[in-house]
Amino acid sequence: MKFTKMQGLGNDYIYVDCTKNILDNPFEVAKKVSDRHFGIGSDGLVLILSSDKADFRMRMFNSDGSEAEMCGNAIRCVGKYVFDNKLTNKTNITIETLAGIKVLELKTEDDKVVLVRVDMGEPILTPKEIPVESSKDRFIAEPIEIDGHIFKVTAVSMGNPHAISYVEDVENFPLCQAGPKMETHKLFPRKVNAEFVQVIDKSTLKMRVWERGAGETLACGTGACATLVASVLNGVTERVAKIKLLGGDLFIEWSEKDNHVYMTGPAEKVFDGEIEL
Fold first, then answer.
1. Which of 52, 115, 188, 270 is spaced 20 to 30 Å from 247 by Cα?
2. What's the CA gap between 255 and 2, in Å, rounded?
3. Residues comprising the binding site for substrate?
4. Which residue in 18, 77, 176, 220 is the catalytic one?
5. Residue 158 sits in the same domain as residue 203
6. Per the structure, how many domains does the chain have?
7. Same domain, 131 and 255
């Protein structure tokens, strides 16, 4: 199997062009290639396919083989892949995902993509649609107990579910203890991506993330978008902010005009290769 390893802020995936050839059993392939000792090493596998609804279609699989609806860092890399490999010459493209069709604006230098702005669509705030078990209209700053500590959690979906809570010192926060317990909490029937956030100021947030099926990653694009939405709802930031992640910075805007969330960030190729399956 020929592949390209790419990363967006350190959130690394193995990308495979499936526009002409189908990959059998991607669930098992994802587990094999993601292994950092016996495989290539990645947070998961991304397939780039043809689409009858958009310019391309993206399927993504976590390192444990589970399929996810969307990934903001991965979709930026898909945009770079299809343009740099001349699968398209357009700088405005559409990508079909399990979370709907996303619109990408590709910013290029020397005929290569360096930045991607993604229209991530409208945030989902209705508990049933996120999903989170709640009888309220929205799940904002609701208490969830983990190991005797009460977290005030705001639930947002950007096509995949997120639970955002605030801590005083995110760098020293015990993410590996709290993250998996939040991910599998009984209130989240489809599990959840857990974001723990430190407010720096009205336009800057510092975030760490525990992703469903992958554990801690260096960045999460949908998580950064969900975090901005949650932070606006909690009154701690403006509608435009820089989200500082372990792998770098994302710039997120929640537009008042169309209620869409826009994410801008880098996408980089690491290397091409082949692996025997």
1. 188
2. 39
3. 11, 62, 72-73, 160, 193, 211-212, 221-222
4. 220
5. yes
6. 2
7. yes
* Tokens encoding 155: 């639930």
The token pair at 122 is 């409208």
- 71 plus 147 within the same structural domain: no
Whether residue 178 is found in the same domain as residue 152:
yes
Question: Do residues 132 and 193 share a domain?
Answer: yes
From the annotation, which residues make up the binding site? 11, 62, 72-73, 160, 193, 211-212, 221-222
Encode burial over 56-80: b for 16+ CB neighbours within 10 A, e otherwise.
bbbbbbbbebbebbbbbbbbbbbbb
The one-digit pLDDT tens for each residue of the chain (277 residues) are 999 999 999 999 999 999 999 999 999 999 999 999 999 999 999 999 999 999 999 999 999 999 999 999 999 999 999 999 999 999 999 999 999 999 999 999 999 999 999 999 999 999 999 999 999 999 999 999 999 999 999 999 999 999 999 999 999 999 999 999 999 999 999 999 999 999 999 999 999 999 998 999 999 999 999 999 999 999 999 999 999 999 999 999 999 999 999 999 999 999 999 999 9
Residues 18, 71, 77, 225: which is the catalytic one? 71
Look up the CATH number of the domain holding residue 177. 3.10.310.10
Q: Are residues 116 and 196 in the same domain?
A: no
Question: Using CA atoms, how far apart are residues 245 and 253, in angstroms rounded to an integer?
Answer: 16
Between strands 11-17 and 44-49, the pairing is: parallel
Q: Which of 128, 78, 130 is nearest to 99 (CA)?
A: 130
- Answer yes or no: do 144 and 224 share one domain: yes
Catalytic, 77? Answer no
